[in-house]
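Task: encode each sequence below as structure tokens.

Item 1
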Amino acid sequence: MTETETIAYDVVVLGAGPVGENVADRTRAAGLTTAVVESELVGGECSYWACMPSKALLRPVIAQADARRLPGLRQAVQGPLDAEAILAHRDYFTSDWKDDGQVGWLDGIGADLYRGHGRLTGPRTVAVGDKVLTARHAVAVCTGTRAVLPDLPGLAEVGPWTSREATSAQSVPGRLIVVGGGVVATEMATAWQALGSQVTLLVRGKGLLNRMEPFAGELVAEALTAAGADVRTGTSVKSVTRTDGTVVVVTDTGDRIEADEILFATGRAPRTDDLGLDTVGLQPGSWLPVDDSLRVTGSEWLYAVGDVNRRALLTHQGKYQARIAGAAIAARASGATDLDAGPWGAHAATADHAAVPQVVFTDPEAAAVGLSLAEAEQAGHRVRAVDVDLSSVAGAGLYGEGYKGRARMVVDLEEEILRGVTFVGPGVGELIHSATVAVAGQVPVARLWHAVPSYPTLSEVWLRLLEAFRDN
């Protein structure tokens, strides 16, 4: 029988993705001893199966699309993309699915790494292998989410792709069915269509990107169709089988579609089903509700940071939460009882409610921060939407011929601040941080007139938006 070893730390972090790494970084910076437990690769989903590989696949696609908009360059980039080289470049950005570099980073900050599956066995106690880790101050659950597959008979035998297979595949399928209309679905449809797949996109709802302004999904769907993808909205999968290597989908409308692979991008679930939550009075497999300091509701020591709390399922937002949680853990460990927990305070993840930015790396890109018009109205704000055609900006014409895009700002008419901003068009991902500053900073519209955009850039859309608000 193996003897169990008990080791005490100030903080124990479950999960070594970007969120867990940032919690550990902040607690170590505060002088707290910290253990990090990871069952897969240090660096997590983002580094190996999400943000980094997906953007490595998409960057050449977007670069080629931009080049084709420019006279003098268009003819030089008419050929197909070199899929083999792009997949190899993707592998480079995932470090070939090896985590030596990130393990070295954890070691560099003085955090102790424990490989294996960590489970709570009671308050402030985590078991991993033959070791028991105890936490004097906090346990932080940073285990993220997993892809959810629909309940379709025989689906497991089909061998469907989830986001992991879609970002790590080693060859280009001739035909690919993508089920879903959100970020993963649209980005992977964009990437694999450009890499040589014939993509069929099946969307249950009325359009794409339904958490953004409606025009975002409309412009992305239009571009995917122009690129050769078959986009079908209002369509559900009734059955899926694989025979002699061919995937066969039958839809609710009776259509029969064949493909070489099928990707389901239909939702996420928290990785909390086997964490021992029941030993501390919580429901296994559930999302973990938290306060703005990321402490689990009703607990004095348990924190849930990143996707597991369902506040904002985005890597950058999880890292933001991690910085807040780390600061809060450190403050409480020092004996502080009066945290800076009011709106926009050092110990409050206020942006989760009011200023969450996101970029969808399709062609065109879609970027948004804060509330959509519908969300602002549902929240009870008296608002007005101001829209501008991005092609009217001089910088858009210089960016490329035939530029198509749209911008919207949602103005709170009582407080005269911005509740939300959305941009859709080539290159707009680099515009969204200015919008994030305006929304998070609650910058008055009157002051925004003095933030002069450089000419001729896409940023001049800010001036056009302000003029439209003034003149209408």
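Item 2
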Amino acid sequence: MKKIDNRKGGRPSKPTDEKRNHTVTIKLTDAEYFDLKKRAKSAGVKLSEFIRHGAFRLTIVSRLNEIETEIAQKILRLSSDFNQGVTWLNSLKLRRAADKLLAVVDAMFDILKKLRPNKETDYVCKNT
């Protein structure tokens, strides 16, 4: 009598807690894609593993705390009031006072540019 073998060929199934069921899609430029691909290859891993490793090994830290964000927003809301004040001073021919006020406003915006996150650097990554 022949013995029947019920085993399937191929790799055994992973336990359910190790299976990856979700896909995340991101858009990259050609330069970003080829840079990531090159870095993954030099690390000797697949691109997906390289990205997964980076995503779970970094902590994203906000550049501003809540209080700094609130202060920056309030200063930015005042910018139209400063503009009206400069216009009023100019209309009264108080040019020197208007210039001083403009210098203060410019200095404020220089500070805010350093604090306010922009599209490219709105967070900082730190290794964990």
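Check on item 2: DSSP finds five helices and two strands in the chain. The beta strands are 58-62, 123-127.
End of task.
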